[in-house]
Amino acid sequence: MKRLIVGITGASAVIYGVRLLEILTKQADTEVHLTISASGARALWEELQIEVDIDNFRLDSLIGISSERVIYHHQSDIGAAIASGSFRTEGMIVVPCSMGTVASIASGISRNLIQRAADVCIKERRKLVIVPRETPLSAIHLENMLKLSRLGVCVLPAMPGFYHYPKTVDDQINFVVTKILDQFGMDTGLIQRWKE
């Protein structure tokens, strides 16, 4: 059983986090540990009109189904399993990743569980994928992402490609989700790959 941590923060493009969860719940060999920041919950409402109560979370309120393989952790639960390096995982995906979260992770600041779990992945040399969605980027943003990249973090901006001949917004969302899952060796067949 693979264990992945997914963090959803308050950047725009929360649809990527939702689609990722939809896909991961279909993977029989994957256990997901989910945490959502308060600003992530707000972005879910603002962008998708999905109301999520982070204090009394229910997965079906987010993706329409429940799954025993998705374990939710409140953003303030610093005693959660994913806050410890002794809890083994394949790594973590922060999608979307706000620039505030990028800055906190780059500075080793852990103000919530998302930031702490990311810090754990870095210190334990586990895969950490951040999916920033911001434009334009300031020098501060770029320096923080460069710092993380030099630490081995995969900086995977939400930049859809066009070589798979997308016809819908869903095609573009699936492109980015595919790129995320490629980092963990997971192929879901969501898109037609180059030259295939």
The helix/strand series, from N terminus to C terminus, equals EHEHHEEHHEHEH
What amount of the residues lies in strands? Answer: 15-25%
Helix fraction bin = 25-40%
What would the principal axes of the Cα set say about the shape?
globular
Determine the number of helices (DSSP H or I, runs of at least 4 residues): 7
Task: Give a verbal description of the structure.
By secondary structure, the chain is an alpha/beta fold. 37% of the residues lie in helices and 16% in strands. The protein has helices spanning 15-24, 38-48, 59-63, 99-107, 113-123, 139-150, 169-182; strands spanning 2-8, 30-36, 70-72, 91-97, 127-132, 154-155. The chain has a 6-stranded parallel sheet, with helices on both faces. Helix 1 packs across helix 7 and helix 4 packs across helix 6. The longest helix is centred in the last third of the chain and has 14 residues, at 169-182. The two termini are 29 Å apart.
Task: Put the structure in a nutshell.
By secondary structure, the protein is an alpha/beta fold.
Question: Which characteristics define this entry?
Answer:
six-stranded parallel β-sheet, 196 residues, alpha/beta, 6 strands
Topology of helices and strands:
Layout: E1 2-8, H1 15-24, E2 30-36, H2 38-48, H3 59-63, E3 70-72, E4 91-97, H4 99-107, H5 113-123, E5 127-132, H6 139-150, E6 154-155, H7 169-182
Parallel strand pairs: 1-2, 1-4, 2-3, 4-5, 5-6
Helix pairs in contact: 1-7, 4-6
